[in-house]
Amino acid sequence: LLQALTTYGDLIGAAFQVVDDLLDFQGQTETTGKKTGNDFIEGKLTLPILHTYARANAEDRRIIEQLFQGDRTLPEAYARLYNLIERYQGFASSAQVAQKLIDQAINALTPFPAERVGITLLKQLAAYILSRRK
Predict the structure, then answer these.
(1) Average of per-residue pLDDT across 30-58
(2) Mean per-residue pLDDT for 43-47?
(3) In sequence order, which residues have a C-beta less than 8 Å from that of residue 110 and are 6 or more positions away?
């Protein structure tokens, strides 16, 4: 049972991070309390970027590399990266990863009786992670 809870915790933690990566691009500053694109400005390679890079053609990979090597504070650099991520479905594929992680986390709780209040709350927490906006 301890292993089931450990697995659950690891998976929802990973899902939380993926959603955080998505909110950095797609969230509203007023809601998240963080400047949109801050991870890019800090040079962080998040899942949407990694998925995009993996799917991009050679020219677009070069552009992504140049964007990271250049002035990441420029709004044009962020806009260009954002457009590439959209074009290569980096946001959608990252959201799918988050959903799979949450599904696996909930599945990890199967050793516990479903009607237990604590288990119900853990499942609700997992669902909240996918729907959070901040």
Answers:
(1) 92
(2) 97
(3) 4
CA torsion 71→82→131→10, rounded to 10°?
-60
Q: Which two tokens stand for residue 3?
A: 């292993």
Q: Tens of pLDDT along 63-87? A: 999 999 999 999 999 999 999 999 9
Pick the closest to residue 10 from 94, 109, 79 (CA basis). 109
Q: What DSSP string runs through 50-69?
A: HHHHHHS-HHHHHHHHHHHH
Q: Which residues contact 97 (CB under 8 A, 6 or more apart)?
A: 18, 47
Q: From CA 117, how far away is CA 123, in angstroms rounded?
A: 10
What are φ and ψ of residue 20, in 5° steps? -60, -40
Enter the pTM of the model. 0.90
What is the number of other CB atoms lying within 10 angstroms of the CB of residue 76? Answer: 10
